[in-house]
Amino acid sequence: MAAFKTATFEAIENQFSINPVLHAFQVIVNRYGIDHQLIHSFFKSMEMDLYKKTYESYEEYSSYIYGSAEVVGLMCLPILCDNNHEQVNALKDAAKSLGAAFQKINFLRDVQEDFKDLNRVYFPNIDFNNLDDYQKKQLLLDIDKDFQAGLAGIKLLPIGSRFGVYVAYRYYRSLFDKIDRLPARVILQKRVRVPDFKKLLIIFDSYFRFQLNTNL
């Protein structure tokens, strides 16, 4: 991890890397002036996955989500807004909320693998040995607030950027709805998935909403 992190910042500074992924990344970072501190925060959270199994406080949990998900939304904003700084600043909170919603849904979707196979628990103060439907509902209420804030931001994105982000929102919202319908015991037994045909329906429905100028 340390070597890859060093190579990442060297690529950004030199504006070149023989690693095609790092080279493409540095092009975007330099073109859109992405804040290097966001990248540092991302690496910090990724490093936590190497040694940390439980997040026992809300502060630890929030710090991990910020670095693993919220900063991704913040890094995408200058690209989505074509470096319109006024738009970027106006949408920062919404981008963080949407990233957080996606990550928290990932936690619930993958809880069977994380908890049973990796002995890893991201949500603080939750006993997944005794997870019940009330606890699951409380987690979803928190995620729903993030989704609502994220959707409000999507509606304010430039029209050329809005569709792709909206499709991602609809996909994760579909996962949210499926988890909401399932008993807590079920999500501990298998990974929750959206079938391929439903993914296609999400894309087509989102497209027609845009074509017909239907409210998102």
What does it look like?
With 216 residues, this protein is mostly helical. It has helices spanning 2-14, 20-32, 36-51, 58-80, 85-109, 111-117, 133-154, 159-181, 184-187, 196-211. Helix 4 packs across helix 5 (85-109) and helix 8 (159-181) packs across helix 10.
CATH classification, class level of the domain at 84-211:
Mainly Alpha
Average pLDDT: 94
Q: What's the CATH architecture name of the domain at 84-211?
A: Orthogonal Bundle
Largest sheet: none
**Tally of separate helices:** 10
Span of the ends, CA to CA: 40 Å
Assembly context of the chains: single chain
Topology (SSEs and partners):
Blueprint: H1 2-14, H2 20-32, H3 36-51, H4 58-80, H5 85-109, H6 111-117, H7 133-154, H8 159-181, H9 184-187, H10 196-211
Helix pairs in contact: 1-2, 3-4, 4-5, 5-7, 5-8, 7-8, 8-10
List descriptors.
single chain, 216 residues, mainly alpha, Farnesyl Diphosphate Synthase, 0% strand
What would you say about this model in short?
The protein is an all-alpha fold and 216 residues long. The chain is built from 10 helices and no strands. α4 packs across α5 and α7 runs antiparallel to α8.
